[in-house]
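Issue 218. Parser rejects a valid record. Input:
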Amino acid sequence: MHRLFYPLHVAVLILLCGEAKAQDSAPLSEDSISAMLSQWHALPEASIETVGLGAGARGLDEVPGALHVISPAELERYAFTDPLRVLRAVSGVNIQEEDGYGLRPNIGLRGSGSERSARITLMEDGVLMAPAPYTAPAAYYFPSIARMSAVEVLKGSSQIAFGPQTAGGAINLVTTAIDDAPSNVLLRSEISGNGGHLRHIRLVHQWTGKKGKWGTLVEGMQLGSDGFKHLPGGQPTGFSKTDGIAKVRWTAAPERRVAQSFQFKVGLVEEDSHETYAGLTEADFEADPLARYAASARDRMMADQSQAVLRHEVTVSERWKFETDVYRTRFHRNWYKLDGYRDASSERTSLLSLYTSNQVEVLKSNTPEEEALLLKANNRWYGTRGVQHRGTFKWGAGSEQQVVYGARFHSDWVDRFQWRDAYRLSDDQMRLVEAGTPGSAGNRIDGARAFAGFVRATLRHERWTLTPGIRTERMEFFRQSYASHDGERESSPEERNNAVHVWLPGVGLTYELHNADHLFLGVHRGFIPPGSAPNTLPETSLNAELGYRWSREHSAGQLVAFHNTYADLLGSDLTATGGLGTGDLFNGGSAQTSGVECEWAGELAPNAARIALPLRLTYTYTRAMFTSAFESDFGPWSVVEEGDFLPYLSPHQGNAQLSIIRGDYALELNARYASSMRVAAGQAKPNEANATDAVTVLDALYRFGINEQCTAYVGVNNAFNSTVVVAMRPAGLRPNMPRLFRAGLSITL
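Output the parser choked on:
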């Protein structure tokens, strides 16, 4: 039914827009060019001072490190719903695709490692948003990029202000501010191939009372797809996701003694996706890369997330202002998925072992009576709560000197209560033959309590800007493990604890040249928390960068060289990486990453009166290798020799964005390239058997204004329909998304 409904839905929206007409308003080129060039310079103060990663800076020259802001105009250019497609335009971001839709992205920064984005700090509006940032940061939940107004990516020495993961960088997803909402109503709809759909609505209302100004924002989104893969029995392979937030804000009237505001935000997300970890053998991939094995038909992720944040902002004077957040999040997920095989002697073989021992045929053929396929209910609850405070104090002539400080009290936990069910495959249908006992495949609680504080100064002298700072983290981890047969948790658990206290200094230095260009360098100490195992050491690193930013009338650019050294590397036993899924952390050896990030944006037709041709280019080279030999149970590492290259890291990445704009019409082209990635540590040149394919993908979108309130677009993702191997973990080969046509409409009232 929905295949008929969504075209009708778009048609109704077009009718609401009225007749198309020529516009005398400013051409789209102005927004497009300013969005490109402001990535490095002339960034509006409010966008980095309120919730931004700049933490009070007046401009990017004050930010120690490479801060990249994806503006609202930039997000609207391509209207992507996949966060990986958005972030590929940022240099220094390492990405490994998985499901094709970006539901559970794998993101790293400057070679930090991308496994489930667990080695970066993930935030929404400046508040930690990973399921359990200290205890279990693996991003099985990721905020919807389609409802964000901006994305901030921070690499380098500004990590002092953000944690707990400070080895690679931070990503902050910024929701629409009530005061900045461009209209009272936003309606957006999109349809795409494979039954894809998006419905998005945002309502904003503001009014003035006797004691201040009130504002409300309600935003809801529903997106999904039938999926681009197929099962022999015709079962679903797509997903459905519902996402909504609501905000209420009160701002004191200007005549009030204290300039302050209160904002309360709540959010709720639900996801139902038919995703699997079972890939294909090389022969099956060659025959049909979009196929799935019949044994994965029951694989399904059901998840829901809720958040509540109360923010208080106070401007005490022109020199001092601060904000305080009280937050709470909850996340529950049960990823019910194929886990292994049990033979007639009751011996269990893991899913990965079925592939390495060439026993994949059991995933395609009927199961004998005395044997069974095992599906594991990875049933987990996560929770976080905390209070954080951040302030900015300025002094000196023109308030040019400043100190930014912050503190956070935080606790989080994850409750694993898992089991395995036995199925038999018959005529491409999975039939339950034995229900497992809840708790028998994982029955424990992990948690952490933490205090974090930082202080960072901005000290100016003529053309020099010095930004020294220090961060401290004091953490206590605990685990309570119950017996597999103790589903009621009536017996005393086995307990373990681990306490960690670290100091993380850093410094940045910026010099403004006579032509207003900037040289900058930064050094800081990085850190990854070690978990509850008493003998596990925290991972530490020394991260350094040297950069140059320049700006001209019609172009701007940035060139950064970085070098990071890591000691006591931490690996995580995740099912996503081919492990057992215990989530335990363990130490490896040492490693180093180095590379270069190049970014340039400019207008190719600066003197043209009727056409604009803004072009933006990015390139990243990353070289990452182990500097010690060791053995580990982490699949991609295994036995490591000194000089081995790190796996799942593309050495060469590039992205090009070109707009051809004439008035209210624009053709947006986005091309990206990523070289192949080895799937295991090693030094020899990888071949097809142990490396992903190089990826070259072109996305295109044609956007046109119908009238002042209505904009429509048609586009295609993966225009050349390239099919490549993007992952070989945890089991089998996995493809990228094939060509996808889409059409959408956006109305602002």
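Fixed in the parser; the record now loads. The helical segments are 2-17, 28-37, 45-49, 72-78, 83-87, 282-287, 351-356.
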